[in-house]
Amino acid sequence: MIPNKTIEEIFQKARIEEVVGDFLVLKKRGVNLLGHCPFHNEKTPSFTVSPTKNIFKCFGCGKSGTSVGFIMEHENMSYVEALHYLARKYNVLIEEVEKKPEQIEEDRQKESLILINEFAMKHFQYNLMETQFGRDAGLSYFTSRGFHQGTIDKFGLGFAFPDGHNLQNEAKVKAYNIDLMKQLGLITEHNRDFFTNRVMFPIFNLSGRIVGFGGRALTTNDKTPKYLNSSESIIYNKSNILYGFFQGKNAIRKEDHCLLVEGYIDVTTLHQAGIEIAVA
Ligand code: ZN
Question: How far is it, in rounded angstroms, from Cα 142 to Cα 35?
Fold first, then answer.
């Protein structure tokens, strides 16, 4: 929990024109500032920022609020996340109180799991782009499906080698915890890489952290399903995550609806075609 006096300090120090100005171009209009509203589509600017009142208001769609409200809405953050964001921006020290030891332990564990997933994503990306085998097997698949490099980067796409040890060998070199990798479903109980000979789709949560993976087989037979997903863990609840939501959140907010499609390839190809409201 953040102490009340710290919250007050954040509200006081966060200047609305500076907070909004990090995201929008604002022009002076009398005592106020004016820009194009990020929350609805408009040709003439009606998004007004009042430094004296320290609030924003859009006369087009009616959205209004404080710096904290703006960050929550614009960055899809919770109230507490927005406070932390502004505290960092304005060098306000947050001394959390009443955080239970179990909570601290759980946060620590979640962070470890996410860091492992981020390592795995980078490793799969390296395989795809920097190895001859990965380029021949994985990148050529994406290219044949019409993927541009920008799309491959935006979605962090990668490639898992077929041998069953490539990921864990690298993990051991870098001293990642193998038991945690098993918890994440990256390594099986039989000590083999879970994803083999697959192109890899990392699954982002709303803050852009990696919570799981989907892998598409490059060769299919009766034994290997076309798609495999990471198992659920304390950071990955399949019913709570939409693939593509992180990459599409600004477009979805603007258009106020989304397009639900079936799978990874649908989302990525639609995004590439400019339809960024697609999620799966
Ligand atoms: Zn608006």
Answer: 39
Q: What is the pLDDT of residues 186-231, one digit of tens each?
A: 999 999 999 999 999 999 998 889 999 999 999 877 778 899 999 9
- Of 127, 264, 249, give the one whose Cα is nearest residue 201: 264
**Cα 268 to ligand 1 centre (Å):** 28
The token pair at 162 is 């077929």
C-alpha to C-alpha distance for 151 and 153, rounded to whole angstroms? 5
10 Å CB burial of residue 253 (0-12, 13-18, 19+) is middle
**Residue ranges of E strands in 107-208:** 158-160, 198-204
Residue type (1 letter), 126: Y
Residue 131: burial class (beta carbons within 10 Å; 0-12, 13-18, 19+): middle
Q: Which residue has the tokens 């006369």?
A: 59
Q: How far is CA 17 from the centre of its chain?
A: 26
Which pTM does this prediction carry?
0.70
Count CB atoms within 10 A of the CB of residue 108. 9
Distance, CA 65 to ligand 1 centroid (Å)? 12
Q: How far is the CA of 37 from the centre of ligand 1 (A)?
A: 4
| Angle between helix 67-74 and 79-89 (nearest 10) | 110
Residue type, 73: E
Q: How far apart are CA 4 and CA 256, in angstroms?
A: 34
3-state secondary structure (DSSP) of residue 88: helix
What letter does residue 171 receive in the DSSP assignment?
H
Distance from residue 39's CA to the centre of ligand 1 (Å): 5
The neighbouring-strand residues paired with 233 are 236
Asked if 16 and 66 touch (Cβ cutoff 8 Å), the reply is yes
